[in-house]
Each structure stands twice: as C-alpha cells, then as structure tokens.
C-alpha cells in the first residue's frame, strides 16, 4: 500500500489540537526537531494570519496508538510543531501581539495590536478557537522509518530546516546522541560560544559533530555535509570507544575553559569556529599521552590570542615563528572546510603552544 493511502485528511480546529495538548495526547518527537525554531515574530505573524482568516500550511500528525482502557488516542507531531506551539503559547497568554510585528495596514491591526489572548474581543477569541486546520493524520500501522522518510521529503526543499536538523530526523542512534549530549555541557553557555539562534537551529550540534569526526577519523577527514551524513550512518548503531571519546572530549573542553579563564575577549575570538576547531585539535594532540597542558603552553596560547590583532606584541613574543603565525591568521579567514588549511593551522598553533623564547 502506498503511504498516501494510509493518510487521512481531517479538518480540525485549534480547540481540538489544544485539547489534545492539555490532555498529554499530543507529543513532540524530538528526533524530528530538537528545538523550538520560531522566533516571537514568527509566532505573532501566524496568529495574525489566523485572525485575518488567511490559510496556513497543513499539519501532519502520526497516530501512535489508542489506550485500551480510556480510548484516548495519542498523536505525534510530524510537521507543524511551530504552528501548534505558537497557538498554545498565545492562548496561555505567554506573549502579546506586538504592534511592530503586525501589518499596521491590516484589517485587524487596531483590534489586536499589543494584546494578549485574554485581552482580545470575544469574537477574536472565538476565531482562534474555531480556526480550522487541514490536518493529515498518518495511521497507526505505518512504520516509523516511513514517517522519517516522509518528513525528510517534506522538508528537503524547505529552507526552514538546515542539514543538521534533517540529520536529527534521519539518525537517532549513537553518534547523534553523543553529539547532542556534549552540546548540553555547561561550558558552551558559560563561555557564550553559541548564540540562541545557533541552539535553535542545531548549529551547535553540527559543530560538535565535526569535533567528534576529528577524534574518530583524524584531521584529514572531510567535514562537509555529505561526509557528515556518512559518519552519522557509520556510527549510528555502534559507536566504538564512545565512553572514551566522551571522556577525552570533556577533558579537552576543560582545558579550553582553563585557557579562557573567564576572559571576554578570548571568548569572542573562540566564538569563531575556525579558531575553536584548531584549538581543539591542537590540545587533543598535545595531551594525547594523558599529560595536561603545562604552564608554558598555556601562557603561550594566551599571549597569542590576547594579542591576535596586535602585530607589534606578536612580533615581540614570537619572533622566531612569525611566518607561521601570519600563515595561521591568513588561513583562518577561509573557514574549516578545506583539509589542507585545517592541517596547516593545526601545525602553526602547535608551534605557538610549544614556543620557547630565544
């Protein structure tokens, strides 16, 4: 049977969706989308469209089973998490319809601007509750693999989802779990390495994946999206030395934290992935024998990063490796994708760490 023949199209109101949510019968499968992606502006625009009476994209739900005792049927949101979340949060008065996000020439502007749900006129409240969505419900007998494939096809040409978010849906095994786990280390937020937008769009997990690829396959391994997908697939079911890699990863991050030492300027530089990636690979090699960075190495790196834009002091501190430092700075403008650049930056930074004053 074709998948389309196992999908029922039903008109359902916002009230029906809200009731499911309130009863705990509407689940968000985080293997499809880890984070709530929409901004407040997106949410307000959706509510405005509903109040004006414009159509919005259909919602896909998966029937995940009916409780034999209560008769309640649970659903998992395949596509439509942001739309549902925007409605549920507005109805619960979590945000108001800021005038700056509305069409000030729109027919409803004067009635709804700067209003929470509780402040709307009676008819506008009813309009939200009774708004009818086109809901496509995938039957319970459809396998999860088919659901994932459908989700990927729905979003493959949709700019809403980036490559990492699509990987998050396709791979739910060991490599994804480790990448996501390491993305939750307090270090990232404490040092402001990733912004809110990075978190929402899983760019943090994507970057951490490239660090794990280095640990597993070496600096020469391609870290483009096509190869990342292959790595995710390779270590999806089994991840050899997983615990060892997690432990080593945390030790390296601890060393980076020591080097930053709460310095805001160092954090700014290391927000750039090209610098963080090179620092990570260099510390990995320097501590491969189990020895921590020594005082000289830490001081050298701090002199380097603290005076990164000050050529006069760089020349004073590192007179014998200036060509390597200028090469590093030049290559750092080109990102982390090219293998030869990654390796040269790595070798340059290693010389900085191990520099001995003449």
Q: Tell me which oligomeric state these chains represent.
A: single chain
Strand order of the largest sheet: 1-5-3-4-2
Q: From the alpha-carbon coordinates, what is the Rg to the nearest angstrom?
A: 25 Å
Briefly note the structural class of the backbone: alpha/beta
- Identify low-pLDDT runs: none
- Average pLDDT rating: 88
Span between termini:
76 Å
Q: Give me the strand/helix succession.
A: EHEHEEHHHEHHHHHHHHHHHHHH
* Form type: elongated
- Helix count equals 19
Biggest sheet layout: 5 strands, mixed
Question: How are the elements arranged and paired?
Answer:
Layout: E1 7-13, H1 14-22, E2 26-28, H2 40-52, E3 59-66, E4 73-79, H3 81-91, H4 109-112, H5 122-130, E5 132-138, H6 144-155, H7 163-170, H8 174-183, H9 186-190, H10 196-200, H11 203-217, H12 225-234, H13 242-260, H14 264-270, H15 273-286, H16 295-306, H17 311-317, H18 322-331, H19 339-353
Parallel strand pairs: 2-4, 3-5
Antiparallel strand pairs: 1-5, 3-4
